[in-house]
Design goal:
By secondary structure, the protein is α+β, with helices and mostly antiparallel strands. The chain contains 1 helix and 4 strands; from the N terminus they run βαβββ. A 4-stranded mixed β-sheet has the order 1-4-3-2, with no helix packed on it.
């Protein structure tokens, strides 16, 4: 992560929201001022990115593989 924290697998420490088009969703949110904790990561389980909501909760956006 940009703040030096290591990303952990499993999603137990964050809320996961599933989206159909991650790049488009990230673009819209960035346009609204959302700052992301990392760049989009791509792996065998799909694509994901994280940000922190105003209350400090970690949110993951996830796009499943095709």
């Amino acid at each position: 992560m940009a703040d030096g924290e290591s990303q952990q697998p499993g999603g137990w420490n964050r809320i996961v929201l599933y989206v159909d088009d991650l790049e488009s969703t990230v673009g819209r949110l960035r346009g609204g001022g959302v700052l992301f904790r990392n760049d989009i990561k791509i792996g065998p389980g799909g694509k994901q990115v994280q940000f922190t909501d105003p209350d400090g909760n970690s949110i993951e956006l996830h796009e499943a593989p095709a």
